[in-house]
Amino acid sequence: MTRVAVFGNGSWGTAFAMVLADAGCEVSLWGRNAARAEVVNATRSNPDYLPGVRLPDGITATADAAEAAAGVDFAVLCIPSQTLRENLSGWKDLLPADSVLVSLMKGVELGTAKRMSEVIAEVAKVPEERVAVLSGPNLSKEIAARHPAAAVVACRDEEAAVRFQAACHTPYFRPYTTTDVVGVELGGAVKNVIALAVGITNGMGMGDNTKASLITRGLAETTRLGLAMGADAHTFAGLAGMGDLVATCSSPLSRNNTFGTNLGRGMTLQEAVAATKQTAEGVKSCESVLDLARRHGVEMPITETVVSIVHEGKPPLVAVKELMSRSAKPER
Ligand SMILES: NC(=O)C1=CN([C@@H]2O[C@H](COP(=O)(O)OP(=O)(O)OC[C@H]3O[C@@H](n4cnc5c(N)ncnc54)[C@H](O)[C@@H]3O)[C@@H](O)[C@H]2O)C=CC1
Ligand SMILES: O=C(CO)COP(=O)(O)O
């Protein structure tokens, strides 16, 4: 039987542990809080993150990383991106030498501008063939309700991607494979920034034309960055690109979208942070995505606008006017 450890028992870590268990894996679900792990085992639920959802019997929760990691084929990492480096340095020596490390995270590291798979390879000192990424339109509550959805597993080693695809394939969760790790990770990280932008305009009372324009031009700037970094343009038309943008920018379940809506309605950054119980990766990653864009000489006007509103205190109305008054150009 395939053994998998999921590190991170928040909303996505728990929902994805359900997918793995439904696919027939033996799953250990690690969380830093021992009391929560006990509650999960005793009640077969995670009331803090997925209230009302019954967890399959194939999941065992633990706060002991060594216990979680013992003998696993795959170590799935699902904690806030900015905490990965520190956490993984404590886990790396516990993982079996032939295990594959899989990132479910959708962020870019502040300061280094590294993608999560790069942080994993660097910290765990593993070759990129042992690092995979899963991304796509996967709002955790809908996955936990077993509504049909698809995703992409990306790994430089296609055979490892196929093995993980089999490990998480269920009647309601359909994973595809690709070797375009860069494209899949950028799709996931940048869509959070675009969802903030959509949320902001939504909170300001703007409608669906604005949303569709931001999604489309957001995809254009994501693709520009991706091409500069060696990604495949097709990836951005796929599940990790357009697919995730549509889901996240349309759904009130999205934390990034909701965070933006709160800002657009007039909350300060501090008020919006206080109103957000879960991880909204775009709030920090908008700065690291902009950093990446500058390192690669790529223009990303929507990302720049989001940074100016979220971190530089620019009033949303002023920022939108500036974005719209940029010089006219051909569509590309
Ligand atoms: N929730 C969703 O629908 C989806 C989330 N993701 C991505 O998954 C990643 C995790 O997100 P969620 O599970 O939704 O977040 P969450 O906020 O629901 O849960 C985060 C988990 O990380 C833990 N955590 C927080 N700080 C920590 C630290 N310093 N050290 C160790 N653990 C810590 C929390 O206790 C919690 O268990 C993010 O990168 C997110 O973008 C990807 C797809 C879907
Ligand atoms: O990544 C997601 C859906 O694919 C979840 O989006 P949020 O992090 O904005 O909730």
From TrEMBL:
Its EC number is 1.1.1.94. Keywords: Cytoplasm, Lipid biosynthesis, Lipid metabolism, NAD, NADP, Nucleotide-binding, Oxidoreductase, Phospholipid biosynthesis, Phospholipid metabolism. The active site is at K191 (proton acceptor). Pathway: Membrane lipid metabolism; glycerophospholipid metabolism. NADPH binds at S11, W12, R32, Y49, K106, S140, R255, E281. Sn-glycerol 3-phosphate binds at K106, G136, K191, D244, S254, R255, N256. It holds the Pfam family NAD_Gly3P_dh_N. It is an enzyme of class 1 (oxidoreductase). Residues 4-160 form the Glycerol-3-phosphate dehydrogenase NAD-dependent N-terminal domain. InterPro entries: 6-PGluconate_DH-like_C_sf, 6PGD_dom2, G3P_DH_NAD-dep, G3P_DH_NAD-dep_C, G3P_DH_NAD-dep_N, NAD(P)-bd_dom_sf. It is found in: Cytoplasm. It catalyses: sn-glycerol 3-phosphate + NAD(+) = dihydroxyacetone phosphate + NADH + H(+); sn-glycerol 3-phosphate + NADP(+) = dihydroxyacetone phosphate + NADPH + H(+). Residues 180-320 form the Glycerol-3-phosphate dehydrogenase NAD-dependent C-terminal domain. GO terms for molecular function: glycerol-3-phosphate dehydrogenase [NAD(P)+] activity. HAMAP family: NAD_Glyc3P_dehydrog. Belongs to the NAD-dependent glycerol-3-phosphate dehydrogenase family. PANTHER family: GLYCEROL-3-PHOSPHATE DEHYDROGENASE, GLYCEROL-3-PHOSPHATE DEHYDROGENASE [NAD(+)] 2, CHLOROPLASTIC. Catalyzes the reduction of the glycolytic intermediate dihydroxyacetone phosphate (DHAP) to sn-glycerol 3-phosphate (G3P), the key precursor for phospholipid synthesis. This is Glycerol-3-phosphate dehydrogenase [NAD(P)+].
